[in-house]
Design a protein that fits this description.
It is built from 6 helices and 3 strands, in the order ββαβααααα.
């Protein structure tokens, strides 16, 4: 994949909650939708011109059967994604909003400039007005 994507949900109040970003050479999917063949609850937005490679479940299973190394690759990719999700969950529960922002700009230095404050705030779980205050603190320090 080339480009930059945002994967998000929209709550009942219309707020967008960003689950994660996917940039060049990353992969993205709604695992529940893919594995259970049900409509997705997630939204995927391309944030810039992008190139993607798509695979459906039937073709993925055929690859697994004919090329065991592909199954190993997907297993490793899935494990890395799970580790990333686990770290994000821990950080969201143990970091302050300022610490989450600091971690975010360290983790995503190549895409921060492509995002709006609203998108970043949706990822951090804060209001974009609060993010503006945090960003001002970073400029002062």
């Amino acid at each position: 994949m080339e480009g930059c994507f945002r994967i998000f949900t929209i709550d009942k109040k219309g707020n967008e909650n960003t689950l994660y970003f996917a940039a060049k050479d990353w992969w993205l999917m709604d695992i529940d939708s893919f594995m259970n063949q049900i409509p997705s609850n997630l939204n995927i937005q391309a944030l810039e011109d992008s190139t993607v490679l798509l695979i459906d479940k039937q073709d993925k299973m055929a690859l697994y059967n004919t090329m065991p190394k592909v199954e190993k690759l997907f297993r490793i990719m899935s494990q890395k994604a799970l580790v990333s999700w686990q770290k994000r969950l821990i950080n969201n529960h143990s970091f302050t909003a300022k610490e989450r922002y600091s971690h975010f700009i360290e983790k995503y230095p190549g895409i921060v400039s492509k995002l709006t404050d609203k998108q970043i705030a949706g990822y951090l779980g804060i209001r974009h007005e609060f993010l503006s205050k945090i960003k001002k603190q970073f400029q002062i320090e």
